[in-house]
Task: inverse folding
């Protein structure tokens, strides 16, 4: 299975690597494994796209861990955009009542803050302008 | 107010306190940087205790550590609601020290950014572990539909915490409370100006209703 991390032998020096991570791959991972995989990719300058988003608890931990890793002149943090939740609020409420931990976001784009010039979202499109520096 | 009514209210307040089995609820004031969280926390604390919570500033991340003001007793309609106010740093996913270098030298900017990141991490941790309700403060002159706001509201909802949205800075010309109501229609939005003290009666009525 291909690794969702930068491989110097495959990455063009002037390119930007995009990791598209399937929901299937994320399903078997613990929350901190997901966060580690995302942030390792972003630290390498990659754009990480999750087919299925994170749970609210995972989003909270992602912010917390990101803050712990910010360092002057090295890593400024992340840009993140997620499609809105489903309009059906009943299902998420039911999910909460039933104790569901499944993410209800459709798709999430995460990248390094210093490389993403703009990250725009509307209901059907997330658009990112990425610099190579 | 007649002597009998005053006495009745006074006795009622004392018995409310004596027979209250609950600890004061910890109400976290969350929101993006520069929404006016500390100004609001100070307004509430000054109105009911006489003391401020922290320093207000136009520079982002002036609040870099969560600060608590305990046992704030808010009186509404003869009963008292006691809360601990927790003023938190503005939540963000990125902090760049160079954004502060116009206001201070590089060493201070780096120190501020480090403290800000620790403060945001702490605020997120508290949200998961240590608050009983949330006042979510938004600048009503800014677009509320940002990823951080959407994520934070989602995190708060997932924890089933009671949340009030405060549309702050209604004194500004560009303010639009409707824009905030439309963005988060599932929650009560209360307009106010923490700086000018506008609409604070409605603010306190709602705090008592939601967190009492």
Result:
């Amino acid at each position: 299975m291909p690794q969702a991390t930068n491989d110097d032998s495959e990455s063009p020096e002037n390119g930007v690597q995009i990791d598209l991570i399937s929901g299937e791959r994320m399903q078997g991972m613990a929350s901190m494994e997901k966060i580690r995989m995302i942030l390792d990719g972003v630290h390498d300058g990659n754009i990480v796209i999750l087919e299925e988003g994170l749970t609210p608890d995972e989003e909270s931990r992602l912010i917390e861990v990101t803050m712990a890793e910010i360092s002057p002149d090295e890593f400024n943090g992340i840009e993140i955009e997620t499609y809105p939740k489903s309009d059906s609020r009943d299902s998420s409420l039911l999910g909460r009542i039933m104790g569901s931990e499944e993410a209800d976001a459709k798709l999430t784009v995460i990248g390094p803050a210093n490389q993403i010039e703009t990250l725009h979202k509307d209901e059907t499109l997330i658009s990112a302008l990425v610099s190579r520096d | 107010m007649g002597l009998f009514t005053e006495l009745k209210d006074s006795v009622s307040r004392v018995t409310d306190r004596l027979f209250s089995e609950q600890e004061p609820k910890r109400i976290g004031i969350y929101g993006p940087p520069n929404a006016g969280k500390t100004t609001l926390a100070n307004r509430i604390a000054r109105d009911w205790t006489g003391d401020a919570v922290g320093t207000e500033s136009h520079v982002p991340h002036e609040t870099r550590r969560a600060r608590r003001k305990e046992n704030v007793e808010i009186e509404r309609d003869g009963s008292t609601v006691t809360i601990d106010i927790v003023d938190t740093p503005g939540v963000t996913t990125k902090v760049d020290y160079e954004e502060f270098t116009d206001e201070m030298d590089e060493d201070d900017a780096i120190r501020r950014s480090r403290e800000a990141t620790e403060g945001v991490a702490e605020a997120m941790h508290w949200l998961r572990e240590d608050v009983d309700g949330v006042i979510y403060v938004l600048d009503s002159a800014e677009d509320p539909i940002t990823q951080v706001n959407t994520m934070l509201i989602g995190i708060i909802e997932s924890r089933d915490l009671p949340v009030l949205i405060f549309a702050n800075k209604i004194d500004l010309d560009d303010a639009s409370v409707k824009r905030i109501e439309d963005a988060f229609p599932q929650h009560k939005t209360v307009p106010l100006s923490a700086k000018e003290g506008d609409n604070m009666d409605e603010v306190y009525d709602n705090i008592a209703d939601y967190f009492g």
